Amino acid sequence: MGIILNIETSTKNCSISLAKNGLPFLVVEENSEYYSHAEKIHCFISSAIEASLLKVSELNAISVSKGPGSYTGLKIGLAVAKGLCYSLNIPLLSIDTLSIMIEGIHIEKGLIIPMIDARFKEVYISIYNENKVRLTPIQAINIKNNSFQEYAKHKIYLLGNVAKKAKNIIKTQVDFYSEIYPSSQLMAFLSEKYYKNKIYENMETFEPLYTLN
């Protein structure tokens, strides 16, 4: 059991949360039209620590989104996370953005496909079953009218604000959840799991998956 600071900056949502035992208990985030992470993230962390009545020294680990996502956002989030980990001598955890997103939905049967903008007209996706087991690696695809047709026998849940664009293209029957986007509050369960299992990153060599500006 630990107190973990989660940092999610892969999109225009600048988001931090404090979590204990796999549950977020304080969230500060702003989903802006612009990338304002550099101006916001330190203030968000300071205000969260102050509001929680914790001391920074009580943090047991820092968890950061490792992408795919914005080069600008991920670089800022990782720099802050590494700085805190070094100064507090605590481990760095990382979770890929698509795995974070699927924590925003629970289904009984079907396939979950989170999506995030990639370069040009591509999107990054990965496919998960109802137990949130990853079935395909993270990959970049072009959205077409027959996308995901090979999975048509399953009920398909498409996540992310990219789904708004895809809705006008895809002809395959899918359910769209554009309101589910990367957020630090969705990181709590996996962060705790990684912390308990000591799945730590090497701070000297770790680099996230950058995709876009």
TrEMBL record:
Keywords: Hydrolase, Protease. The keyword Ribosomal protein does not apply. Residues 36-135 form the Gcp-like domain. GO terms for biological process: proteolysis; tRNA threonylcarbamoyladenosine modification. GO terms for cellular component: cytosol. NCBIfam families: T6A_YeaZ. This is Glycoprotease M22 family domain-containing protein. SUPFAM superfamilies: Actin-like ATPase domain. It comes from the Bacteria. The keyword Protease applies. Pfam families: TsaD. One of its GO terms (molecular function) is peptidase activity.
